[in-house]
């Protein structure tokens, strides 16, 4: 059996470039020759603070995988091999959704595959795309059209997450929308909001992020300190809004987001933070604010829409920081953790 190069997580801050066995396929899977794999905040957390989701010490309940894991869940490439039931995918360039679902449980049959009873994610709970090759079920691989180049399409999966969040929030034309945090996921939510006819206010502690948000469609940018109090934030923005996306997960962010949410409005929580936080439910209940959460995306609904938004290249040019070679993946993780990346870092086995 042939081998390949891959970035394998063995433990906290223990990411190794190794020769590993090239994946084998079942009848519904395809083998993707990786063009690019994007790094995200989840990857950084698993590397620097985790593992939280990577099943190093116990089998994952969905995938059954346990032990060192090839990271990478934002990958694209070309199908070079296919199982018996996936032959139609041969030769196609594809973006992988990474989230694997059973297709049979209650959530799957209702269209919410991201909440599948046995859901798992390639690159987190099974081997992923920080490698020369990756295996994936054909149903989570979306063809990339000829008029969208690889480097643009590499942002498909994270943009699909933003699109899913916007759909969950029920945003309608004319809404005032605040993005509390316009880092990686906040920027993708901003892109997803672009053509909905809404008034977007971007809020962040980083002026560079705010400058990009304005180019992505935000009408107003508000620079804040990490210590700002809820009422101070409301004063800085000048009004409450129908929909607020809290994308940072930072301590106190939920309370700040509630303060700027309109009576009867929607507060959408995206940011992940495992540390318990206080939240003013009294205020939320009395003002009948809808508290919503969102996770991942629904591949068949959100991925094709993401590719269409990426075809022009405008988004990728604004949100991609650099391309690095797979052999330099550890250095890329260190830069991401240290805040030395102003956008998405793409890792490639052939470029960089």
TrEMBL record:
Asked whether the UniProt record includes Hydrolase among its keywords, one would answer: no
A Pfam family found in this protein is ADH_zinc_N
For this UniProt record, the keywords arranged alphabetically read as follows:
Metal-binding, Oxidoreductase, Zinc
List residues of the Alcohol dehydrogenase-like N-terminal domain.
27-146
**Metal-binding: present as a keyword of the record?**
yes
Q: Where is the Alcohol dehydrogenase-like C-terminal domain?
A: 184-311
Which molecular-function annotations from GO does this UniProt entry contain?
oxidoreductase activity; zinc ion binding
Q: Which cofactor does it need?
A: Zn(2+)
What family does this chain come from, according to its entry?
Answer: Belongs to the zinc-containing alcohol dehydrogenase family.
Q: What is this protein called?
A: Unannotated protein
Instruction: Give the organism the record lists.
Output: freshwater metagenome
Which lineage?
Answer: unclassified sequences, metagenomes, ecological metagenomes
């Amino acid at each position: 059996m042939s081998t390949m190069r891959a970035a394998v997580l063995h433990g906290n801050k223990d990411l190794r470039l190794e020769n590993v066995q090239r994946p084998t396929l079942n009848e519904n899977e395809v083998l993707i020759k990786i063009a690019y794999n994007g790094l995200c905040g989840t990857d950084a957390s698993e590397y620097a603070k985790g593992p939280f989701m990577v099943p190093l010490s116990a089998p994952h309940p969905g995938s059954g995988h346990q032990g060192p894991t090839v990271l990478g869940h934002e990958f694209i490439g070309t199908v070079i091999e296919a199982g018996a039931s996936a032959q139609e995918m041969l030769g196609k360039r594809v973006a992988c959704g990474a989230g694997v679902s059973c297709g049979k449980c209650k959530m799957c049959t209702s269209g919410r595959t991201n909440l599948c009873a046995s859901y798992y994610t390639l690159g987190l709970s099974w081997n992923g795309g920080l490698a020369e090759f990756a295996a994936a079920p054909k149903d989570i691989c979306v063809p990339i059209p000829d008029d969208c180049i690889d480097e643009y399409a590499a942002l498909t999966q994270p943009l699909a997450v933003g699109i899913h969040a916007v759909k969950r929030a029920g945003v309608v034309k004319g809404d005032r929308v605040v993005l509390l945090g316009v880092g990686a996921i906040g920027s993708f939510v901003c892109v997803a909001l672009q053509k909905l006819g809404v008034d977007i206010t971007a809020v962040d502690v980083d002026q560079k992020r705010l400058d990009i948000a304005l180019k992505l469609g935000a009408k107003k940018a508000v620079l804040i300190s990490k210590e700002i109090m809820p009422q101070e934030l409301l004063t800085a923005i000048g009004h409450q809004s129908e929909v607020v996306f809290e994308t940072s997960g930072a301590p106190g962010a939920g309370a700040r987001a509630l303060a700027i949410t309109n009576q009867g409005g929607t507060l959408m929580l995206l940011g992940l933070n495992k540390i318990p936080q206080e939240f003013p439910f009294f205020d939320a209940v009395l003002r009948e604010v809808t508290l919503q959460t969102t996770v991942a995306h629904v591949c068949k609904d959100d991925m094709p829409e993401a590719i269409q938004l990426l075809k022009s290249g405008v988004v990728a040019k604004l949100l991609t920081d650099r391309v690095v070679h797979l052999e330099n993946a550890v250095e890329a993780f260190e830069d991401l953790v240290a805040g030395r990346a102003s956008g998405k870092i793409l890792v490639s086995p052939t470029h960089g």
